[in-house]
Amino acid sequence: MAQTHIELNRTGDKMPLVGFGCWKVEDSDCEETIYNAIKAGYRLIDGAAVYANEVGVGRGINKAIKEGIVKREDLFVVTKLWNTYHQKDHIRPAFDRSLKDMGLDYIDLYLIHFPVPIKYVDPAVQYPGDWIEEGNTDILYERSPIHVCWGEMEKLVDDKVARNIGVSNFNVMALLDLFTYCRYKPATLQVELHPYLQQKRLVEWVQKQGVAVTAYSSFGPASYVTLNEEGKTAKPLLTHESVQDIATKHGKSPAQILLRWSIQRNVAVIPKSMNQERMKSNLDIFEWSLEQGDVDALNKLEMGARFNDTVSYGFDLPLFD
After folding, report:
1. 113 marked among binding-site residues
2. Catalytic residue among 35, 51, 120, 196
3. What is the domain range of residue 126?
4. Which residues form the NADP-dependent oxidoreductase domain (predicted)?
5. Is 51 a catalytic residue?
6. Given pLDDT bands bounded at 50, 70 and 90, which one contains residue 278?
7. 46-91 residue pLDDT tens
8. Is 55 a domain residue?
């Protein structure tokens, strides 16, 4: 039987290697989309406060539970702390808001979305806040150090409302710093990862530290066509000749090839599709494998091309430099 889960540090919880990503799913569509994803076999649901669809995500989850398709303990629900809630007194209320919006009693994995503490915005004014506050032209940072933020994240574990905690968009230096003071090591690191941006050294080092890696944007520029110039101009991975040749060889879709490339690195993936047949296809990546020649061909596509880049959005924040 092919490995379908990663065992997380500290808890030993089994995180599915393939989950369903909720980014860019409209809240109005979310209930039915998440419900269909669970019916298709997805057991990991990856969301975030900033996706502005947690109410719909929760409705889809609870509809599937109510109908007996799954039990709550069968699911692995992920959400994320947004930048405007890093201050010590704002972390638990932000977490509780996500719990309430989703109608859940606990979260399986709660992540710091970005290592970027931005000035607090009252949810009554705007939820969950934006990178740049209305009326300003620059990001307004606040003095909320990660070690204080992480201490509050750890309290969520102590209070048994978050089973695991982790980080997203952190680099090695940020992780090294966190390791010097944490009581609970991050269970996972979530980063952009695809053949155009393979981050080989980062992935291997993080995995050696006992931290699982999850890839977002496994299809490269596909999700960024409407967001930045890089997404518009980069050759789509799904139609790249090398990817299509390997897909034809194996009788699989290009999406399956790209997802399989990641899980053969023991890296989890969180693809999104609104199409039920593609939902099922994206799950069908365990009973076959890529040959070394296929992997070598995909590895040659490395370009260092980062599409989820704060600078490309016009922010004066070279976060990944």
Report:
1. yes
2. 51
3. 5-220+265-287
4. 20-301
5. yes
6. very high
7. 999 999 999 999 999 999 999 999 999 999 999 999 999 999 999 9
8. yes
